[in-house]
């Protein structure tokens, strides 16, 4: 996993809970916490941080990832505003992940592995998003979707229809206006 994700986690934790909380989280996870944005770090290190946060807050890993993703979007908007200003609403932004956002991520962060999404628009106006990733970080994707909705001033509801954690081949989420 690229260091920029660890940097975002640190920013979110420090902004929300203070620098002492970040230091305590590093200690509880047994990691040194020195992350460069262009560096690559093991997924196990991120999951150690997520697990330590979950134990401290009595939350599941999925809930921690959702919390992180939701709160990371404003930090991403600060770092990469052009990705967000190109769109006026959540759905067009989300639909740009495979074709615009992730190719740019790969340019900026050599060796970055990005998940793949597929999109379907049912007649009811919702958006079905298929999430494919061996990392199975659907909680993080869920949080990112909620954060994107907040950024565009849209209250979104995310409902999991299929999940890799339940043995499905992909995660399938339904995104609709609340």
Structure description:
- The chain contains eight helices and four strands.
- The protein has 178 residues and is α+β, with helices and mostly antiparallel strands.
- The chain has a single domain, classed as H-NOX domain.
- Helix 1 packs across helix 4.
Question: Any key phrases for this structure?
Answer:
178 residues; single chain; four-stranded antiparallel sheet; 14% strand; alpha+beta; H-NOX domain
Short summary:
This protein is α+β, with helices and mostly antiparallel strands. It has eight helices and four strands; from the N terminus they run αααααααββαββ.
Write the layout of secondary structure elements.
Layout: H1 3-17, H2 19-29, H3 43-57, H4 61-79, H5 81-85, H6 90-95, H7 97-108, E1 116-120, E2 127-132, H8 138-151, E3 156-162, E4 171-177
Antiparallel strand pairs: 1-2, 2-4, 3-4
């Amino acid at each position: 996993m690229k260091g920029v994700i660890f940097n975002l986690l640190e920013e979110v934790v420090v902004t929300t809970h203070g620098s002492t909380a970040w230091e305590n989280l590093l200690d509880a996870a047994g990691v040194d916490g020195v992350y460069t944005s262009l560096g690559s770090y093991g997924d196990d290190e991120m999951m150690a941080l997520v697990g330590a946060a979950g134990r401290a807050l009595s939350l599941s890993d999925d809930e921690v990832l959702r919390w992180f993703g939701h709160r990371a979007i404003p930090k991403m908007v600060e770092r990469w505003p052009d990705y967000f200003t190109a769109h006026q609403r959540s759905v067009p932004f989300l639909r740009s992940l495979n074709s615009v956002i992730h190719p740019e991520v790969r340019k900026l962060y050599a060796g970055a592995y990005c998940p793949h999404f597929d999109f379907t628009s049912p007649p009811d106006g919702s958006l079905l998003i298929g999430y494919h990733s061996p990392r199975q970080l659907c909680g993080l994707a869920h949080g990112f979707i909620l954060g994107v909705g907040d950024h565009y001033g849209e209250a979104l509801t995310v409902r999991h229809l299929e999940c890799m954690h339940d043995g499905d081949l992909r995660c399938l989420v339904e995104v609709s206006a609340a």
